[in-house]
Each structure stands twice: as C-alpha cells, then as structure tokens.
Amino acid sequence: MLGAPHPSLDQIDQTMENTHTYMGLFHRGSTVLGIRLARDTARLVGVTCALLAALATGRPHSFGWDSRAYWLAWHGTMYGGAPMTRDAYLYSPAFAQAIRPVAYLGWPVFAVMWSALLTVVLAWLLLPLRWWAIPLWLASLPEIISGNVFVLLAAVAALGVRHQWVWAFAALTKITPCLGPVWFAVRREWRHLGISLVATAAMAVLSLAVAPQLWSEWIQFLFAQANKSGHTLGAEIWPPVSYRLPLAILLVAWGARTSRPWVLPVGMVFASPVIWLGTFTMLAALPRLRAPTSSGIFVDPRLPTPLKRSGGPTLHGEPGRQLRIWCGAIGRAVAGGSSAIVKRGWPARPCNCPRSLRGSSCPTHREQ
Question: What is the separation, in whole angstroms, between the first and last Cα of the chain?
Fold first, then answer.
C-alpha cells in the first residue's frame, strides 16, 4: 500500500535478531537430535555386540579361542596346527617366551589375566572419546573374549611414532602389520628407523640364542604357509595378503609424506594376514593418534617441531600454551578497555537510542 508507513530501523533490527534466534534454535535442535541419534545407535550396537559375546561365552570352547593357543604353546607341539584352526600357535618363539611365566599357570587364571590386560588397554585407547568409549568398548567385547592380539597391535600403532621399539611386537607376532619402519623410512627419520629395527633384531637374537630349534621350526612353518599365500584366509570378500600388503605399504607411505598418522592403523588392518571383524579392532588406535596429550604419549607429526625451553616441558600442544594465549588475549582486551575508559569515561546513563542516532547525534554520547 502506498500509504503504509515504512518500518523503522529498530523494527528491522528486531526482525533480524528474531530471525537469527529462530535459525539458531533450529540448528541447535537439529544438532541435538543428530547427536542423540548417533548416541542411541552406538549404544544399541555396543549392547548388541556385548550380548552376542555373552551368548558366545556360554558355548563350549568359545572363551579364549585365540588366547588358548598362546597358553598351549608350552603344553605340546608349538607349531603343529594350521592357520584358522583351534589352538594353532602362529607367532614367533619370542612372543611365546615372553608369556612363558604366565603360561605355566592354569588355563582359567591365564584367560582371566589376558582378558584383563586387553580390557585395560582397550579402555585406555578409547578414553579420549569420553562417553563414546563405552559403546565402542562394548562393541569390541567379542575380541576381548576371543583374546587375539589386535588390541595390543592397536596400542603399538598409537605408541609407535613416539616409542619406536614397540614395533618389535608387531614384527614378532603377525609380521605383516609391522609398518612402522615404512613410516620412518619415508619420513627419513633414520634414528627412529634404527631404533625399531635394532629393537626387533635384539629381541629376535636373544630369543634365538635361548631356543634355536623353535626358530627353525617357525621359519619352516612360515615357508610352508607362504606357498598358500594365494589363497584367502578369513573373510572371502578380502583379497589375499600378497595383494593387500603392497597397497598397505603405499597407503602408509602416503600418510608419512603428508603427515597423517591415522593412516598407520588403517594400513595395519589392510596388511593383516587374516581380515575378519576382530581385525578392525586395530582402529581403536585412532582416538590416540588424533588427540595429542600433554603427557607426551603422542605428538601429532603434522604439527611443527615442538619448541622446548632448556630443561622445561614441551610448549607446543600443551594446555599451558593455550592458557598463555588466552591470558594474553584477555590481558590485551582489559588493557584496551581500560585505556578507552580513561580517555572517554563511562556513559552517564545507559544508551537506549536507535542505532541511527548513536554517535555524535546521540544525546547521551553528545554529553560526553
């Protein structure tokens, strides 16, 4: 209508503020609904896996399907079973010698101690996820009951960039997921590469000196199984390890060149000799690789080289550095506000005038 009054600037401002408020409420509501949906889905999956694991535990010979092989390694022929068969020990003699003192205990005691170790390690890996760690831990419960070393390999991936010697565990168990040396070689971190290789060689030589006959049997066992490398073990949807290992090496090399440490556990999954659901437990290392902590457990290699004071803690990536940044910003803001108060002084009374009058035309500001 031609005679209709034009809206004032205050009305336009109020309309814009109401629009932004409604849009913010809608965005917040949709975000909350999405978070609740994801949370409920994760809980449902975790509880379902936990129930399946509980049902599987009640079946005979289901608890400790893999860990029982470690215990039986010293109670019979060590390399008498074929892969994918029950009670078949497949790892190096060094691993068997490391757990030998515990293997002389009874099977129930060994099973409980081994499952407790996997439980604690998995909880530590998932701890940065806070409440998300609970459903994911429940989803990994079948692997804890099975007792395979995938949880420990996830810990190797999480710690291997800072503590290079832990890659010896991967080399002396499943062999092919030992991709840490590839990471160090591509990044030209020769000292770290040397530590990982020397640690592995030292453990192997020490074990060989103690039990050379077992190493001979293990090497013969590996060559016998290498002739079957063209056949798929585990899920049929995955190609044999002879095809997956080169791809895993290329993936880790790309991650090393672009400083993406999360690639390590992903490459280890692809390089695993056998891929099934339990193999993906190695992805539990991702929260630790994506969340640097002030305790020095891991520092993301994508960050610049940490700056250090003489004899002091690392400054980069610590909560103390963020605190100093915030304190500096607050101090500058307070100093700027104080100088403005000294120059202009506080308004004598609150300013309620429209925005169009604020400034030199505002009666409140004109008085100052």
Answer: 43
Angle at the Cα of 263 (from 258 to 266), degrees rounded to 5? 160
Kindly give, in sequence order, each residue whose CB lies less than 8 Å from that of residue 215, ignoring residues fewer than 6 positions away.
92, 93, 207, 208
The span from the CA of 245 to the CA of 94, in Å, is 24
pLDDT of residue 210: 93
Tokens encoding 112 = 């409980």
Which pair of structure tokens corresponds to residue 217?
Answer: 């049997």
In Å, how far are 114, 137, 277 from 120, measured between CA atoms? 10, 10, 20
Q: Which tokens go with 256?
A: 């090393």
- Token pair recorded at residue 126: 């998932």
Q: How do residues 252-276 score in pLDDT, each as one tens digit?
A: 999 999 999 999 999 999 999 888 8
Q: How does pLDDT run across 12-65, given as a tens digit for each residue? A: 555 556 555 655 555 555 555 555 555 555 555 555 555 555 554 445 456 778
Of 312, 317, 283, which Cα lies nearest the Cα of 300?
Answer: 317
Alpha carbon of residue 353 to chain centroid = 55
Return the closest-CA partner of residue 233 out of 45, 56, 82, 58.
82
How many other CB atoms are there within 10 angstroms of residue 173's CB atom? 19
The answer to whether the CB of 108 falls within 8 A of the CB of 71 is: no
Going by C-alpha positions, the residue among 214, 86, 238 that lies closest to residue 147 is 86
How many C-beta atoms lie closer than 10 Å to residue 350's C-beta?
6
